[in-house]
Write a structure and sequence with these properties.
InterPro entries: Ntn_hydrolases_N, Proteasome_sua/b
CATH topology of the largest domain: Glutamine Phosphoribosylpyrophosphate, subunit 1, domain 1
Pfam family, one: Proteasome
CATH superfamily of the largest domain: Aminohydrolase, N-terminal nucleophile (Ntn) domain
Number of domains: 2
Shape: elongated
Strand content: 25-35%
Helix content: 25-40%
Number of strands: 17
Mean pLDDT: 83
Strand order of the largest sheet: 9-10-1-2-11-12
Structural class: alpha+beta
Low-confidence stretches: 117-123
Length: about 350
């Protein structure tokens, strides 16, 4: 399982942002689940994010949590608890490698505060990387860390370096949302639900949770500079189930048909459509105009030969603006692929489908 886990720390708060998409490296970013759990509680002021082998990571976290909870029951607390949690995790991995004599295929970030500290000093909070190498950037106002698994962390770090400056708490939270959103629209392995948790010295709470398409619409203006090289692609769920084999076939046809098409990212799977964002190496408005001309030919041909149109074009539960988007019936498929430009209005319609 890859991940996009982002941490931003200001003076008295640690923001932890994660996505919920579960994929496997050997399935070319095929979505196994949109509800993968990647954030775990260890103590009231300590959490962990995971990547790669979720089973190994969860076993490690359970081990650390059980020991910490037992210590709390016995003496009411553990001195230096965030550092204690990291030490226990490292001891667990050393023992695991010794017993099984193979690598520990899991990555964990443990994030939290010293137990009961009331001073909110920078040195009283800690990010410990267990069996992974996060990208970390520090300035006088903020500490940023991106989990390195998959490529989501790389894109998040790239966005942060371009936009991150000295920020207030509110600005930092907004920046974190933009960083996560950018990663999910460019990284095929990131997506699902985007959640942000606030970790403070005396507790933590989830403060944000939205699907990617909802978040895309809410923060559309922040992403507009990255959209001229993209098109939206829709595949009707009623025609084919989303499976690995079919997903590979769709990607292969797109590569063959669109030429300089670079990659596709699934933004969401809803009742009607698999919604993809297609990335190109050039601005695509001219390509979209060609698709509209080709669609006009297809529609005319269907009408002349009395063949039925694509079923989404007469589905009254689909918004008229979506039904009127250009669609192409490609070789090897018995149902069309629909194309659109990622305008604010189209993103809104797809969010509500």
């Amino acid at each position: 399982m890859s991940t996009c886990s982002i941490l931003m720390c200001c003076e008295d708060t640690i923001f932890v942002g994660v996505d919920s998409r579960g994929t496997a490296y050997d399935t070319n970013a095929f979505i196994l689940t949109e509800k993968a759990k990647k954030l775990f509680k260890i103590q009231y002021n300590i959490v962990a994010t995971i990547a790669e082998d979720s089973g190994q990571c969860e076993a490690l976290i359970t081990y650390v949590k059980d020991i910490m909870e037992n210590a709390m029951d016995i003496n009411g607390g553990v001195a230096g608890d965030i550092h204690r949690a990291a030490t226990l995790a490292q001891e667990y991995i050393r023992t695991w490698k010794s017993v099984f004599r193979k690598p520990f295929i899991g990555s964990v970030l443990i994030i939290g505060w010293e137990n009961g500290n009331k001073s909110f000093r920078r040195q009283d909070k800690c990010i410990s990387a267990i069996s992974c190498t996060p990208r970390i950037h520090t300035n006088k106002d903020c500490v940023f860390a991106a989990h390195q698994n998959g490529i989501g962390g790389h894109f998040a770090f790239e966005y942060y370096l371009s936009h991150g400056k000295g920020n207030s708490r509110e600005e930092l939270l907004e920046l974190l949302k933009h960083v996560l959103l950018y990663a999910t629209i460019v990284d095929p392995m990131s997506g699902g639900l985007i959640c942000v948790t606030e970790v403070r010295p005396f507790g933590f709470s989830k403060i944000y949770s939205h699907r990617v398409l909802e978040m895309f619409f809410d923060h559309y203006d922040a992403m507009t500079k990255y959209l001229p090289h993209t098109l939206v692609s829709l595949w009707c769920n009623c025609d084919h189930e989303y499976t690995y084999e079919h997903n590979e076939k769709v990607n292969g046809v797109l590569f063959g048909f669109l030429g300089d098409y670079h990659k596709s990212v699934v933004l969401g799977i809803n009742r009607k459509f698999v919604v993809r964002l297609l990335h190109f190496s050039y601005q695509v408005h001219a390509k979209y105009e060609q698709l509209k001309q080709l669609n006009a030919y297809w529609v005319q041909d269907y009408e002349m030969n009395s063949r039925p149109k694509s079923r989404h074009t007469y589905d009254c539960t689909v918004h008229l603006a979506v039904r009127e988007l250009p669609w192409i019936l490609m070789s090897g498929f018995d149902s069309p692929i629909v194309f659109g430009e990622p305008t604010r209005n189209l993103v809104k319609l797809l969010r509500d489908v």
